[in-house]
Amino acid sequence: xxxxxxxxxxxxxxxxxxxxxxxxxxxxxxxxxxxxxxxxxxxxxxxxxxxxxxxxxxxxxxxxxxxxxxxxxxxxxxxxxxxxxxxxxxxxxxxxxxxxxxxxxxxxxxxxxxxxxxxxxxxxxxxxxxxxxxxxxxxxxxxxxxxxxxxxxxxxxxxxxxxxxxxxxxxxxxxxxxxxxxxxxxxxxxxxxxxxxxxxxxxxxxxxxxxxxxxxxxxxxxxxxxxxxxxxxxxxxxxxxxxxxxxxxxxxxxxxxxxxxxxxxxxxxxxxxxxxxxxxxxxxxxxxxxxxxxxxxxxxxxxxxxxxxxxxxxxxxxxxxxxxxxxxxxxxxxxxxxxxxxxxxxxxxxxxxxxxxxxxxxxxx
Length: 365
Description:
Number of strands: 12
Order of helices and strands: EHHEHEHEHHEHEEHEHEHEHEHEHHHH
Number of helices: 16
CATH class of the largest domain: Alpha Beta
Strand content: 15-25%
Strand order of the largest sheet: 2-1-3-4-5-6
Largest sheet: 6 strands, parallel
CATH superfamily of the largest domain: Glycogen Phosphorylase B
Structural class: alpha/beta
Radius of gyration: 21 Å
Mean pLDDT: 92
Shape: globular
Low-confidence stretches: 357-365
């Protein structure tokens, strides 16, 4: 790659996409591949976000003009993220720089379906113009191939490092069983399915308790829990990260994420790596990660009755809970760890460069 850099384009807003990029940075990808992270988006007002996007585009343009860029790794989602990154990607391609589009958007199917035929063709053209499209699961690969048949699609799942576990990890103190939810609080993540399901499950397993960490519709969810009479069994923690997140994952007995749409959630990977059985839904790449009945329990999104039954089982069957937690950790180690996924990222970089004029020049071709 000579002295040129990989430019990684990604949001700094809290969530799974940022967590993936921070993982790359912390696990040596930035150092190994000379990666420069340009922040293209963040939380805040529209004027602030527009200024940040303009500044990021100018930063990329400056690097391109100086011939400092070997490859652009562009993390994309739906709506504004897609159109914004399309502009960045087109700018890089105008300088002959290959682009890897990395699709994360949990609601990209719905976004695409709502577009006019003309804009759907724009989406196909964008994917097909990239040197490659990285997706999180085989289900997402099938979707991208369906909308952009000439795109080069590679499955690159999210990953985690396996933490060391304390000897008493997953133990239920005083007979209580604590579930953990981490994410943006709202309808898409299934919080308003989870709360009534918990209310019903508590009739059979009164020792259940739920910790909810995240931002979003906190007050609405808090009011709903009070309305259901479960506010003493639900604790809202606000957004958690870093050491606090690790503490929660180490002390909980199960993890629950009843999302309506997902890519491949980092939080599920983190929970399974910590040896927690999980309850989630059959959406996105989740069924390729969680084996129903083995690593956890999967229900259909919005099915409160099935979610209730899952909470009752995980809350009442200590032996199954322990076995599922061990199985999930093994599953992550085998297919979703840094040792497995990061070499695949390196191969994707090499493949993208191999077909570019920059890559040929770096090899003396």
